[in-house]
UniProtKB/TrEMBL annotation:
This is PhnB protein. CDD domains: VOC_like. Signal peptide: none annotated. Gene3D superfamilies: 3.30.720.110, 3.30.720.120. Residues 9-135 form the VOC domain. PANTHER family: BNAUNNG04460D PROTEIN-RELATED (PTHR34109), VOC DOMAIN-CONTAINING PROTEIN (PTHR34109:SF1).
């Protein structure tokens, strides 16, 4: 059997996070978002050299930053977050509450958005932003633009 260029269960692009105390982050993602740990490679010093998680049908890779990571740093070392992760779920209200209970901080409350999602924004304990959403309305591109123009126009 030939090796596949993209392994089974993977997509073309996968976020890779540098997180100080990656082992604690894995536990948080399990509690907050129902993540499943697919693989973990512990470094000799006890840190996480590489880990792969599944959340829903998507993968997330992470590791403790180290010299071998080619410059990968952590969100904890930044003034803000350099990335945001968008997570579609079946029930945004339940998942948002679960993440808060697990230790996330609310940035923006869950609400219906002009583009057809019900979503809210969280910051995880490691400095990463999560946009958690459930799609609730199919909206045409034209309608999204009209709603956006109305929302951003001066009153």
């Amino acid at each position: 059997m030939a090796t596949q260029p993209i392994p089974d269960g993977q997509h073309s692009i996968t976020p890779y996070l540098g997180i100080k105390d990656a082992a604690r982050a894995i536990d948080f993602y399990k509690a907050a978002f129902g993540a499943t740990e697919m693989f973990r490679l512990d470094a000799p010093d006890g840190r996480i050299g590489h880990a792969e998680l599944k959340i829903g049908d998507s993968s997330l890779m992470l590791a403790d930053p180290c010299d071998q990571a080619g410059g990968l740093t952590s969100s904890q070392s930044l003034q803000g977050s350099a990335i945001g992760l968008h997570l579609y779920v079946e029930d945004v209200d339940a998942t948002f509450a679960q993440a808060l209970k697990a230790g996330a901080t609310q940035v923006n409350a869950v609400q219906n958005q002009f583009y057809g999602d019900r979503s809210g924004t969280l910051k995880d304990p490691f400095g990463n932003l999560w946009f958690v959403a459930t799609h609730v309305e199919d909206v045409s591109v034209e309608e999204i633009r009209a709603r956006a123009a109305k929302m951003f126009s001066p009153q």
